[in-house]
Amino acid sequence: MSQTVDRALSILPLLAEGPADLGQVADRLGVHKSTALRLLRTLHEHGLVYRQSDQRYRLGARLFALAQEAMENLDIREIAHPHLVRLNEGCGHTVHLAVYEEGEVLYIDKVESRYPVRMYSRIGKPVAITVAAVAKLLLADLPEAERRAVAEKLDYPMYTARSTPNAPAFLRELERVREQGWATDLGGHEESINCVAAPIRGADGRVVAAMSVSAPNVVVSADELLTLRPLVRRTADAISGEYSGRTPQKDNVT
């Protein structure tokens, strides 16, 4: 039975490459045509493959509907939270998770620092979009035209001397973030607070969320915080793998 299931599932990535006839499917699986036909018929009955008028098979609409439904029901916060907690336990600093929705970047999860000096931030609160590291990652992933349109509509308050001053500077920063795959906020919002962030990607490679570690200067210097960048990126990669289904949950490590 397990061999039959394995063979049937092996047909799906083959058809993802394009329509294939019975002979091609049989050859790829290394089975007789009659065996391949039984597998295809079963998949066809469940709507996972479709037989075209030219007798070739392609992926069925039901498969796409299932994939879409699964994606819509994925809760990035639920998936990410255990990873954020482990990261917090390892470094002791505040950990945030953020998403981009309707023109705002919002915190959707937070694990507090174990140190007495803590950041003032809360779940559901918009971040300072022109300086926050998580915002840079989320906006950097937008298509260029959309990225430029967003940047040109924003206000650029000078929270500190290190704040992003205008749209051209912001766009340059987003391009740099896009190329390097991580972001920082080193005193851009509050002089005493530094932050390093990494992107969380879906199965299509697009950024669906961003996570960060933040700490005040009185607890750790900016240079010391930046040494956590590899750990932050590994955590984000582990969340990405679980969210997109690339790795089993038990294999995810931070």
Automatic annotation (TrEMBL):
A Pfam family: IclR_C
Domain HTH iclR-type: 2-61
Stretches assigned to the IclR-ED domain: 62-245
Domain of life of the source: Bacteria
Full protein name: IclR family transcriptional regulator
UniProt entry keywords in alphabetical sequence: DNA-binding, Transcription, Transcription regulation
Family annotation (InterPro entries): GAF-like_dom_sf (IPR029016), HTH_MetabolicPath_Reg (IPR050707), Tscrpt_reg_IclR_C (IPR014757), Tscrpt_reg_IclR_N (IPR005471), WH-like_DNA-bd_sf (IPR036388), WH_DNA-bd_sf (IPR036390)
